[in-house]
Amino acid sequence: MSQTRTTLITGGNSGIGEALAKRLVDKGQRVVSVGLEKPGWTHDLLAAYCADLTSLEEARTIAQEIGANHAIDCLVHNAGIILPNLLPDAKPEDILELAQLHLGAPMLLTQAALEGMISRRFGRIVFVSSRAAMGAVTRSAYSATKAGVHGMARTWALELASSGITVNVVAPGPILTDNFWGIIPKDSERQERMARNVPVGRLGAREDVAHAVEFFLDERSDFVTGQVLYVCGGTSLVGLGP
């Protein structure tokens, strides 16, 4: 990005979101983070807000507050949770909670920023989805809502293309973050076995995903919209095995 832009990152306080926030700030870009907690670091270019985006009311309130205080040029919806369960134990309530987080929250945040993006004839919207959108064991609610992200992003890409706004998706495979370690014990044999099942021979780092997101945010990427980029070490082709 050649000129100074302001990027709103959900889940900017940890994991992929934090890695992206630090990369953008290092390049002189302004970042607005919204998450359950504020980032554990500060910078003159960083503004931080706290909200539970699984709550429709909190998401609506924080969207209005951020929209009133910042001219958002780019939005990266990175916040997400998994809520894993095999089908016998899966709960419809989980679908509703994840639909609000993965779909409802970014809709409200984008709506709050949209008028400014349209008036400046520039906008970048990037969803961080998941390879699990293609299907994964224990991921009924997660896979369903992440697949929904892909459909919504493509719809927005068509609606906003004439306004200079692109909408794209980065779909990570297994990435070493707290979300991952919340399910797979850190440095366990299971983690090592999963790494061996990845075609490139390793699990992903959060910087791998941040790098891909930056491509879509770049002003020179204005001819790329409505796309899903799998940053997954090849697991979109073969799965992850048992």
Would you kindly provide a written description of the structure presented here, covering whatever features stand out?
The chain is of the alpha/beta class. The chain has helices at residues 15-26, 56-69, 92-120, 140-160, 178-181, 189-197, 206-217, 235-238; strands spanning 6-10, 30-35, 46-50, 74-77, 123-128, 165-172, 228-231. The chain has a seven-stranded parallel beta sheet, with helices on both faces. Helix 1 (15-26) links the parallel strand 1 and strand 2.
Mean pLDDT: 95
Distance between the termini: 41 Å
- Beta content: 15-25%
Classify the helix fraction into a percent range: 40-55%
- Describe the strand arrangement of the main beta sheet, using strand numbers: 3-2-1-4-5-6-7
Radius of gyration: 17 Å
User: What are the low-pLDDT stretches, counting only 5+ consecutive residues below 50?
Assistant: none
Main pleated sheet: 7 strands, parallel
Overall outline: globular
Instruction: State the order of secondary-structure elements, H for helix, E for strand.
Output: EHEEHEHEHEHHHEH
Beta-strand segment tally: 7
Q: How many helices does DSSP assign?
A: 8
Q: Which class do the helix and strand fractions yield? A: alpha/beta
